[in-house]
Every structure is written in structure tokens, then in C-alpha cells.
Amino acid sequence: MPLVTPLSANHDLETKELAEFFNETLGFCPNSVLTMQRRPAISKAFINLNKAVMANEGRVTSALKRMIAWVSSNATGCRYCQAHAIRAAERYGAEQEHLDNIWEYRTHPAFNDAERAALDFSLAASQVPNAVDENIKKQLYEHWDEGEIVEMLGVISLFGYLNRWNDSMGTSIEDGAVESGEQYLGKHGWEKGKHV
């Protein structure tokens, strides 16, 4: 049972229009956004931030951004965001081997060193206390420029917000996200948890 009940998608028409973005990303408007619209300024600001963070300005692909989001959400334990991130990675063209082996990104041959550096950065930046250190910085600079690092940290920070929001709210998870979570993450114990 969520802490706060999501409102109808028609509650705030500006939010509804902005939320069309999620139909491409996920195939539905997330319940988290439907809850945020109890204060429409929050829902609108969140959607605009999401769009800005997920825009591609360099070599950080849409699929990699969603895998960065998954690693961040996995580190914090938010099952809702884990399922959303893996679903979005699939919809944005992540390779099947990446989707099937995201848990083993550090050792699986489907991942290259640049991807590993990005995903290690996500893991380190999502931990409390923060674990970004000189080694993480060195790995990043071997493969990515400063603008791309800013893009990655934008994703990690956005999902820090979402992980706190959805785990605290106990946001009800949508059927499509459940399907993706079970398909790609279920073999490692993923379940809906409190997000029923």
C-alpha cells in the first residue's frame, strides 16, 4: 500500500502533457509522477529534469544511461526503480547480453572497459557514504570526457531522488515494469517487495 495514493493522469493537464515522455521511455506514466502531481510544480520540475538528464549530448547512449540508473537503484535497493531502469534500457536498445547479465557487468565479456568504468562510477556514487575516489576518477577519464561524466552523474543523482521517493512512498509498481523486472532480474531474486 503506497504512503500516498497516486492521482488520475488527468489531474493536472500540464503534467499529463509533459508525461507523454514516459510513454516512449516506459510505455506508461509512472505512478511516482502521478503521486508527485499532488504538488504540480514538483511533477513538472521532475519531468523536465528527467528529460534534460536523459538527453544525449555525447557518447553516453540512452541504453547506457538506463543501465547506470539500474546500478544506482540496485545499490540503494529500490526495487521499483530497478524494474523501471531495466525496462527503459530494453526499450532504448540495450543489447540482450547486457540485459541478461547486468548483475555481472564487472566480469561479463558483453561489457567493455568504458561501460564498466561508467557502471563502477554509478555504484560508487550511489553508496552511503559516497565511494567515488581517485581510482574511479582515473577509470572515468580513461574513457569519458568531462561533459559525459556530468551526464552520468546527472543520471545517478536523478535516480538518487527517485530511489528515495519510490522506496519511501512504497509506490505501486506498474504491470509493464513487473514484467521486465521478472524477465531480467528475477533470476537474481528481484521481486516487487513493498511496491505491490
Automatic annotation (TrEMBL):
Gene3D superfamilies: AhpD-like
Highest taxon, organism lineage: Bacteria
Domain Carboxymuconolactone decarboxylase-like: from-to ranges: 40-120
Pfam hit, one: CMD
SUPFAM superfamilies listed in its UniProt record: AhpD-like
Protein name: Carboxymuconolactone decarboxylase family protein
